[in-house]
Amino acid sequence: MSTEARQRLHDSLQGIKTILILSSCFVLLSHLATSTHSSLAISSSLNKLGPIQKITSAFTGTKPSANDTRLQLIRNNVAANVEKIKNIVNTTLGDVRNTIKRTINETRNALLGFGIKVTEIGSIVIAAIATITVIRQPWLRLDKTHSPLLKRIELAAYDIDDTHLPLNLRTFKISYSINRVVVRNRGWKAAKNCKGILKIGDEEVKVYWYTSTSFEKDGMTINRHSAEYLDLFAIVDGEPSEIFNSLSEHVSKLKDYVNGETFTDAFLRQGFNATIHALSNRYKSAEDIPRIIIQDAADGWNIARKQYYDTVKEAESRRSLMTDSNIPIERIKDITKVIVTSENARRLQEPMTILDRPADIQGTAIRF
Questions:
Q1: In the beta sheet, which residues pair with residue 364?
Q2: Which residues pair with 199 in a beta bridge?
């Protein structure tokens, strides 16, 4: 064989080899294009054909209708399943939200009800504690039903303690009725250091408690469910004018006795005459007979022994001050208050009126 024939045979074999290689590549590419398209359709549900399918279609020149229908069904199924999952998720989320709302509402209502109950219980407890606290404290009240209580006493207008004089001429006594009020402690605890005050107008004066032996100068302790008696004042029994006439007659008899023939001691006579002169200057009229008096801090009930209102200044003070255990007659018709203070009890303050003369034969001179 010649060189040219050998060359032509070699060229033909190379062409056949090239055609076989190209055919194998085409078949392989077609298979890969179909597999890839199916995989992409299931996973991504794409509406358009993949690049490999387009290449395959270009080679074949026809549309894969059967595959398209299958892919469309797959996409529809996937879409339906996605929609179901979405509906299930939405339904589940709605149920969860409703359950959460219902739980929150029930919890809020339960807490609100619990809070109301706690508030009610707390209010009851606080009220009970306050009630117990109030009950356990002393509680002072003026017993108007049993007030005033009256006691008659006799006080000396003068008193000469000398046996040289007859007994009936040594003294002259004036009768007074003490007006005292009952102060009760209705609490469950003793009221300590109780002190009494009588307020007339703008003036205040201390008054004292009655005891079986003497008046109580310091504060009185009133035991629980107990009572004590506060002496406010004493009012004269009878008319001051009649008392003054009797006193003047008595002093006149004393003077006659001292200056009579039976009394021989000149030195004593001089001293007694000085006393009689002082009495005459002290009791010049019925106005000098104290109508209403209070206790003296040192001596208790008495008629002050010194001369009253010697000057105009003292006469003016009679209208504004309660001095010498004597309540000025100009002030007794004012609205008055009895006050009781205590170390551990609330202040007791009760209004009343003091009369300028007794309202009855017993000597009552208080009106509530």
A1: none
A2: 204, 337
**Cα-based distances in Å from 19 to 11, 15, 22, 33, 58:** 13, 6, 5, 21, 19
Residue 153 half-sphere exposure, CB side, CA atoms within 13 Å? 20
* Contact status, residue 208 vs residue 231, Cβ threshold 8 Å: yes
Residue 103 or 232, more confident: 232
Cα separations in angstroms, 368 against 64, 160, 362? 122, 41, 17
| Mean pLDDT calculated for residue range 78-86 | 75
Residue 346 carries which DSSP code?
Answer: P
Convert the pLDDT of each residue in 151-162 to its tens digit: 999 999 999 999
What pLDDT, on the 0 to 100 scale, is given for residue 202? 83
CB distance 352 to 336 below 8 Å: yes
Please give the residue that has the higher pLDDT: either 25 or 59.
25
- Report the length, in residues, of the chain: 368
Strand 191-200, strand 335-341: pairing: antiparallel
- Residue 367 pairs in a beta bridge with 353
Name the pLDDT band for 34 (thresholds 50, 70, 90). low
* Residue 285 confidence (pLDDT): 93
Per-residue pLDDT tens for 266-278? 889 999 999 999 9
Q: Which residue has the tokens 């004269």?
A: 236
CB atoms within 10 A of CB 273: 14
CA 84 – CA 79 distance, rounded (Å): 9
Q: In whole angstroms, what separates CA 350 from the centre of its chain?
A: 23
d(CA 154, CA 172): 9
With a cut of 60, say whether residue 320 has pLDDT above it. Answer: no
Q: Which pair of structure tokens corresponds to residue 183? A: 């102060």
Helix (H) or strand (E) holding 204: strand 203-210
